[in-house]
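Practice problem: predict the structure.
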Amino acid sequence: MAQQMKTPKYSSYDIVIVGGAIMGASTAWFLSNDKDFDGKVLVVDRDPTYKNSSTMHTNSCMRQQFSTELNVKISVV
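Answer:
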């Protein structure tokens, strides 16, 4: 899979987040939209599309929610 590398816009950043996906991207978004934060944020991820990120391949919500008989019964109610 060919990846497109992008050169960062600035030469320095106040916050560098390594790993985008759900946690990195949401952290960057919240920081960028915080009226009290006026710094520059850079998100670095080897897959800029996030198609192969662990967020896209996880089913942890299913494991946690339906991992035991009791959890299945609770969710039916």
